[in-house]
Amino acid sequence: MPKLEISRRSLIGGMGAVPLAGLAWRQAEAQTAPTRKWSVPYGAAVRGGSLTEDADYRATLAAYCDHLVSEGGLKWFDLRPTRDRFDFSEGDRYLAFARANGMTFRGHTLVWHGALPPWAEAIDNAVVAEREMIRHIETVVGHYRGRIANWDVVNEAIADDPQTAPGLRDSLWLRRIGPRYVALALRAAAQADPGAKLIINDYDIEFIGDRYKRKREAFLRLIRSLRADNVPLHGVGLQGHLSDNQIDQAGLTAFVNEIKAMGLEFMVTELDVVDNKMPGPPDMRDMVAAARVHDFLGAIFAAMKPSAVLTWGITDKYSWVPIYFKRGDGLPNRPLPFDVQYKPKPMMQVIEHFCR
Ligand code: 9MR
Predict the structure, then answer these.
(1) How far apart are CA 72 and CA 77, in angstroms?
(2) Whole-angstrom distance, CA of residue 286 vs CA of residue 157
(3) Is 156 a residue of the active site?
């Protein structure tokens, strides 16, 4: 494993003060502070090719992250190219990197509407769907039993605009098994590794607007019904793919308060800023993105400390955002806390401000 190639001083030292509202940057303190083990652990999603090829990438992850999660590798598409073959090579590699650097590795994701291989998409009946879903969870959680302590068991179960209860997203799992697939998945995961924390994860509940409010309500409805049925569930993940939409701070704080009242953990699982509709000049855009993250984390921390904050990648060099949300002005997207040269951006200051 490479030694730390970038020091905290060289990363943070060149930044200077950033005049972000409500944020006093204590540079001297930051230069001597430990880079990890913040009071709320920080982490990032990791990518395979970059991990092999890019030493600065490895060093930045090792310098800042207490958690890692894989962007791919543990999705059905990667794990199960055919029905009967489970390929753990990518996941095992991420886990080895995480462990060698004293990080914990979270599993993403066991049951999702996306990233399904063609053979799974083609499942056309309830018996096979249930059998394969359970076999998947038993095999994958079983393989990592005692080594992956935190799983996104069900990802994005809520419809984008839930008009009527229960408001679940159309997916292979809903179509073939019905709404009970969520509880089935959680129960199977608990059985496969009773020590693992089980999370349900979703997005788009943090913005101002009726659609987001409806999604928030549907998500809470699902969580409450799982609790009422004594389904094993330890926490709720909010992805946090932010954008030019304003954060509904009161709504988000109220949501997190509900989670807290149920005795569940809350974590931020995929934070980044989709910046295709934000101002052009990079400096200005970085400030707007940081302010958005400030609003988002501020609303969450007003209710409770999350158990972790993870960004969906760590550097603008490697992100899903340009694939789907390229800018009209041709300028590169800047969705993540470090730029392409691995210099921390104001977004990282905001994360540190809340988490350290
Ligand atoms: O960033 C991920 C991208 O590299 C993959 O191609 C894609 C499909 O597997 O998934 C992306 O990650 C998604 C995550 O798994 C769930 N929430 C939304 C993320 C961004 O699309």
Answers:
(1) 9
(2) 31
(3) yes
In tens, the pLDDT along 185-236 reads 999 999 999 999 999 999 999 999 999 999 999 999 999 999 999 999 999 9
How remote is the CA of residue 312 from the centroid of ligand 1, in Å? 9
Q: Is 114 in the pocket of ligand 1 (CB under 6 A)?
A: yes
The class level of CATH for 4-355 reads alpha beta
Instruction: Give the model's confidence band at 11: pLDDT under 50 very low, under 70 low, under 90 confident, else very high.
Output: very low
Ligand 1 near 75 CB (within 6 A) = yes
The alpha carbon of 143 is separated from its chain's Cα centroid by a whole number of angstroms, namely: 22
Predicted confidence band of residue 149 (pLDDT cuts 50, 70, 90): very high
Residues recorded for the chain: 356
Distance separating alpha carbons of residues 277 and 288, to the nearest angstrom: 11
Strand pairing category for 104-111 and 67-70: parallel
For ligand 1, mutation pick of 47, 152, 320, 336 (most atoms within 8 Å of CB): 320
Predicted TM-score (pTM) of the model is 0.92
Which residue minimizes the CA distance to atom 12 of ligand 1? 71
How many angstroms separate the alpha carbon of residue 70 from the centre of ligand 1?
10
For ligand 1, say whether the CB of 288 is within 6 Å of any of its atoms: no
Which pair of structure tokens corresponds to residue 184?
């089935």
User: Tens digits of per-residue pLDDT, 94-112?
Assistant: 999 999 999 999 999 999 9
For residue 228, count CB atoms less than 10 angstroms from its CB and return exposed for 0-12, middle for 13-18, buried for 19 or more: exposed
Q: 3 in helix, strand or coil?
A: coil
Question: What's the token pair of residue 168?
Answer: 């679940």
CB 294 within 8 A of CB 260: no
Is residue 322 lining ligand 1, measured as CB closer than 6 Å?
Answer: no
